[in-house]
Each structure stands twice: as C-alpha cells, then as structure tokens.
Amino acid sequence: MSSVAPVPSTADMWRAYAIAPAVTPITFIAIVSMIGVALPANIIAMGFLACYLVAGLVGMPIAFSLRSTDSLNAWTIHCASLAWAVLWSLFCTVTVVYVVTAIGGSIQSLLLTAGCFLAVMVPPVVLAGTVFWLLLNRPKRI
Questions:
Q1: HEC profile for the chain?
Q2: Which of 107, 116, 84, 110 is nearest to 95 (CA)?
Q3: Do residues 79 and 95 make contact, with C-beta atoms less than 8 angstroms apart?
Q4: CA-to-CA distance for 97 and 24, rounded, in angstroms?
Q5: Which residue from 25, 5, 24 is spatially nearest to 13, judged by alpha carbons?
Q6: Which residues of 100-132 are buried (b: 16+ CB within 10 A; e: fewer)?
Q7: What is the pTM of this model?
Q8: In sequence order, what are the residues at sequence separation of 6 or more whose Cβ sits closer than 8 angstroms to the Cβ of residue 42?
C-alpha cells in the first residue's frame, strides 16, 4: 500500500477552499468567547470576508503552485498556514502597539501584545490549514 496521497483534482481543491477558510473565524470567535469578550456582528462578518479573501488570493495560488510541482502535502500546507498566521499576528501587533494605542517603544507591551495575537490567531489559521488538507484527502465516494 502506497503512502503517497493522490494528487487532488481542481474540484477537490475548490471544494476544500469553500469550507476551510470558515474554520478560522469560527475558531477565533470560540476562543474569544471563552475569554468572555463579545464580538459585534460586523467584526464577525469582516472576519469571514477577510479569511475567504486571503485564502482565495494568497492561499489558493500557493496551493495550486504546490500541486503543480507535486509538493502539496500536509507539511507544506501547515507551514504556509503557520507562516501566514505569524505574519498577520505580527502585523496586528505593530498596528495595535504603534498606531492604535500610540504607546510605542515599550518592549513589554510589544511582547505582551505579540503573545496575545499569536495565541489567539495562530491556532485557528493552522486549524483551517488542517481542514483544507483533510478535505483534499478524504476518501472518494464511488
């Protein structure tokens, strides 16, 4: 029995795209709700829109490129998800610390904010990558 996964079809990839990006905002909302913070509906809607835009404009071209070079596997999907989550968390950190709150300069505030963003954003984004990979590799029905 071969351990190499078959190359997913274009339809499989778009089907996975239709579902996987929704995992990020749903998981994020669950995490934030457990902390006890209520999110307005417009923020939730923007989160869904942003996840689908990023997945469509950044993630899918990367996935199709990886598939064309026969490099689309669990490692590359998870590394790409993790890289995007870390980059976005760091962007949010800089935005909050230096632009929004204008507290700048304090290494403690920067590290605390970065830690919070990483803790809240990385798991949902990587989970979405996992869902994408699992949807591509689910058993085909005859």
A1: CCCCCCCCCHHHHHHHHHHHHHHHHHHHHHHHHHHCCCCCHHHHHHHHHHHHHHHHHHHHHHHHHHHHCCCCCHHHHHHHHHHHHHHHHHHHHHHHHHHHCCCCCCHHHHHHHHHHHHHHHHHHHHHHHHHHHHHHCCCCCC
A2: 110
A3: no
A4: 23
A5: 5
A6: eeeeeeeeebbeebbeebbebbbebbbbbbbbb
A7: 0.81
A8: none
The SS3 call for residue 134 is helix
Residues 115, 116, 119, 124, Cα dihedral to 10°: -140
Angle between helix 60-68 and 10-19 (nearest 10) = 150
Contact between 92 and 58 (Cβ < 8 Å) = no
φ and ψ of 139, to 5 deg: -60, 135
Q: Which of 99-103, 110-114, 124-128 is modeled with the greatest confidence?
A: 124-128
pLDDT higher than 70, residue 72: yes
CA–CA distance, 45 with 69 (Å, rounded to integer): 35
User: Rounded CA gap, 16 and 58, in Å?
Assistant: 15
